[in-house]
Write a structure and sequence with these properties.
Residues 17-44, 54-64, 125-162 and 689-723 have low confidence and may be disordered. Helix 10 (226-241) links the parallel strand 1 and strand 2 (245-250). Helix 2 packs antiparallel against helix 3. By secondary structure, this protein is of the alpha/beta class.
Length: 806
């Protein structure tokens, strides 16, 4: 018992330097005399304190201590594990020196090196980086031990990014200055628009100085989610790895869907994740230049004003699809030799340049109504890329823009804007998700438009979207959940929006670590939610201090409470068992009445149940064994109101029973605790999935990506469609995936009991503390929380859910 005691381990470390045979003998003698571990340790501390007060000349010489092989090997394993969890350059160097000494059987030298390596790794690097980023990113910090104020070196920062970005830079992405912008093989008969002229490339290289320049281009019509976090990690990571630049560009081309609150939220999310853009720009900054280029495109015969309605346009596209299918089935080698069916092309496609210029001026001057006409790019109707079928470039929207006011009543579309602005900003690498693959093909509209305008063409590369089980990522679906009141706003902790994850208690380092390990590939996949949870769980298991809380209190009355032994009932509980010396202990009084969680008691016992039951013994954590001797039920409802127990004051020296329960005393404070779980009850809502190798969830081929030509229209109409309030039954008929919402995704405990220290120090400081409530999970204070009405959110459970195994 003495050897295994955490306190004695602490004494052993100090005694290596100053212990004597007298102290060791005293410990052995008093063990027999007092028969109490607590008294033994108290006597040991007193004896040790007396020895430290003795003058140096009166102390007997300490015998030379020799390190044993077994102690050295044990410490080596401990230090190696610490180096894996928290790599630190200094700690790793000490570890290597220790290994060399151990190989030479110089255990006296090896042991202190391993001890110092363990201490250095545990007190530095990852934990310190977490703490610093939270403080800089959003004023957040953890309630942890005092750690060394070491700073992460430039080399370590670069290493942090290499995991996800280095392979792409070395093996996939173009080097700045390469004339061929798109490395993708296409049929030699097809046009390749992705080749830069030497003149345009020369001007581009003069502007950038040969540096990498990427951009993160969100639309300010909603809040960011974890898919955007992955895109940001890649966009900023590629540039940072090559000492380049990244622009944060707001694609604000739709004034009816954009709000300043979205812009502010995106900036804040970007900063919280630790990304610092070189420059913040807006597509609206280039509206004048975009208009000039539209005139140039009309003059070159590359655009026309079309008066087709939406219905007529849809009919034309349907005919073009039938044409493609007919050519494929009949084995036509050259589709350009086959006539298009009547009605496939817009009847306004062959308007003269003069007429198009005149009509476009009428659009600009407000003489056309919304939906009456649009400027369309004259692409390739025979192409098998649907986005080449004359996409819209400008449409009439008589709405004020948040930045340009009422200057414009026509606004450019995404398909016209984003590639031109990429060129104007001299972006070297335009990195997008796979739904843009056909748009950015060498014979697709991205390069077709830049080729028509004879401007610089950035390199493009596409990677898979971030899809995570038990969640939806579509902005349209998220918007539906919010507007129909199925979740509590865009920052609902059950959703994987950046704001929702922040409110739940995720840290920027855990999100970035998840993105780094996920990597950037072109393989469509769905990531298990457990991988994301494991990142924050691994971080908090080290960083978070531990406290007691009881969610659903059941009163326990100790009938033989020894009031005359108050000193023995003031219990010591460590803030963290692995860092007792650094973080210290907290005091909890074992009162005559305590509380346990109601689900830790059963009136009828079960062999698999380790909680309290009638005539059964359990250990109160850090305290004594209690045995249930009776129960009291409500005469009206029959519900158990209290439990009577007897305490065994000699039980601490004995082996504890299997059941070890957390508890609360009468001094604990009342708080609201929100226990969050998975938002959906199935891994991929609305999709048929099957278990693949290694437990991966494999979706159907069409499960994840919307049709290219429909994507933008869905996003623009999302707010209008979702704003129509409907009953839940109506919504479920229209959207079957809503039937799969998890009814237990949020359980609220209004009368939970929490340690007073935690409430006093952090209840009115949202996200200032991420703590472990023992046996319950990791928690943080919500922004609704005050000292008068504390509110805690569960971040994640202590262990990975077994849902997947089931």
């Amino acid at each position: 018992l003495i050897k295994n005691s955490p306190k004695q381990q602490k004494h052993d470390e100090r005694a290596r330097e100053e212990r004597s045979g007298e102290l060791c003998a005293s410990l052995c003698l008093v063990t027999v005399k007092f028969k109490s571990l607590e008294r033994v340790l108290f006597y040991a501390e007193e004896t040790h304190a007396q020895r430290l007060q003795m003058s140096e000349e009166n102390q007997p010489p300490l015998p030379a201590m020799k390190a044993s092989k077994s102690a050295t090997v044990k410490m080596h394993k401990k230090a190696a594990n610490a180096a894996k969890k928290k790599p630190d350059l200094d700690g790793i160097a000490l570890l290597e020196l220790g290994v060399k000494a151990m190989d030479l059987k110089e255990y006296d030298k090896a042991l202190p090196l391993f001890e110092e390596a363990y201490k250095t790794c545990m007190e530095s690097t990852k934990v310190e980086m977490v703490k610093r980023e939270k403080t800089e990113g959003g004023g957040e910090k953890n309630v942890n031990t005092t750690k060394k104020n070491t700073k992460e070196t430039t080399t370590e920062k670069e290493q942090h990014q290499k995991d996800a970005c280095e392979e792409a830079v070395k093996l996939i992405l173009n080097k700045p200055g390469e004339l061929l912008a798109k490395k993708k093989e296409i049929d030699a008969k097809l046009p390749n628009y992705a080749k830069n002229s030497e003149e345009n490339m020369k001007r581009h290289m003069e502007n950038t100085g040969g540096k990498y320049r990427t951009r993160f281009p969100p639309e300010p019509n909603g809040y960011l989610h974890i898919g955007h976090a992955k895109a940001m990690y890649f966009d900023f990571g590629v540039a940072r790895l090559n000492k380049g630049e990244t622009y944060l560009r707001f694609d604000d081309t739709n004034p009816t869907a954009e709000k300043q609150e979205y812009i502010d939220s995106i900036k804040d999310s970007c900063k919280w994740l630790g990304h610092e853009p070189t420059k913040i720009t807006y597509s609206s900054d280039y509206f004048d230049r975009l208009y000039e280029l539209a005139i140039q495109l009309i003059k070159s015969g590359g655009a026309y004003v079309c008066h087709q309605t939406k219905t007529e346009t849809a009919r034309s596209r349907s005919l073009l699809r039938e044409f493609q299918e007919k050519c494929a089935k009949s084995g036509v080698e050259n589709r350009y030799e086959v006539e298009l069916p009547e009605g496939a092309a817009s009847p306004y496609r062959e308007r003269s340049v003069e007429e198009n210029l005149e009509l476009f001026e009428k659009m600009r001057s407000g003489q056309c109504e919304e939906g009456e006409c649009s400027l369309r790019m004259k692409g390739d109707l025979r192409s098998d890329i649907t986005s080449m079928w004359d996409l819209a470039a400008y449409r009439v929207k008589k709405a004020e823009h948040p930045r340009t006011g009422s200057k414009w009543c026509i606004y450019p579309t995404y398909d016209y804007t984003h590639n031109i602005v990429d060129s104007l900003e001299n972006i070297t690498h335009s990195l997008c998700t796979l739904e843009f693959e056909t748009r950015q093909a060498p014979n697709g509209p991205y390069y077709w438009l830049l080729d028509k305008l004879n401007v610089y063409k950035p390199s493009t590369w596409e990677f898979s979207r971030c899809n995570i089980t038990y969640n939806v990522m579509s902005k349209r679906k998220l918007n539906l959940l919010v507007t129909q009141g199925l979740v509590n706003g865009w920052d609902d902790p059950r959703m994987l929006t950046i704001n929702g994850m922040r409110r739940r208690g995720y840290t920027p380092t855990s999100v970035n670590s998840f993105c780094a390990k996920m990597g950037v590939t072109r393989n469509e996949n769905v990531q298990p939610l457990e991988r994301l949870e494991n990142e924050i769980r691994a971080e908090l298991s080290v960083d978070s201090n531990r406290f007691f809380a009881v969610l659903d209190p059941l009163k326990v009355e100790i009938v033989n409470y020894p009031k005359d032994r108050a000193a023995e009932l003031l219990m010591d509980a460590p803030f963290h068992p692995s860092f007792m010396e650094e973080r210290g202990m907290r005091k909890i009084q074992l009162t005559e009445t305590v509380f346990i969680d109601r689900n830790d008691f059963r009136e009828v016992d079960d062999p698999s149940f380790f909680g309290l039951s009638v005539n059964k013994k359990v250990r109160l954590l850090f305290a004594y064994d209690i045995t249930c001797t009776g129960i009291t039920k409500s005469p009206v409802t029959g519900v158990i109101e209290s439990v009577q127990c007897e305490i065994d004051m000699d039980s601490r020296a004995n082996k504890p029973p299997k059941g070890k329960l957390h508890w609360a005393n009468t001094e604990f404070k009342t708080a609201e605790v929100r226990v969050y779980d998975k938002l959906f009850a199935v891994p991929v809502p609305g999709k048929v999935v099957e278990e693949g190798e290694g437990g991966e969830v494999v979706p159907e081929a069409t499960a994840l990506v919307a049709a290219d030509e429909e994507e933008e229209e869905e996003e623009e109409d999302a707010n209008e469609d979702a704003a129509k309030q409907k009953s839940l039954k109506e919504l479920e008929l229209e959207h079957p995936w809503l039937k799969q919402l998890n009814p237990d995704s949020l359980v609220v405990y209004k009368n939970a009991l929490v340690e007073p220290m935690l409430i006093e120090n952090h209840a009115d400081q949202p996200y200032s503390a991420r703590v472990e409530l023992q046996r319950l999970g990791f928690f943080t204070f919500d922004f609704d929380s005050t000292k008068a009405k504390p509110v805690l959110n569960r971040i994640v459970t202590l262990k990975e859910s077994n849902t997947k195994k089931k």
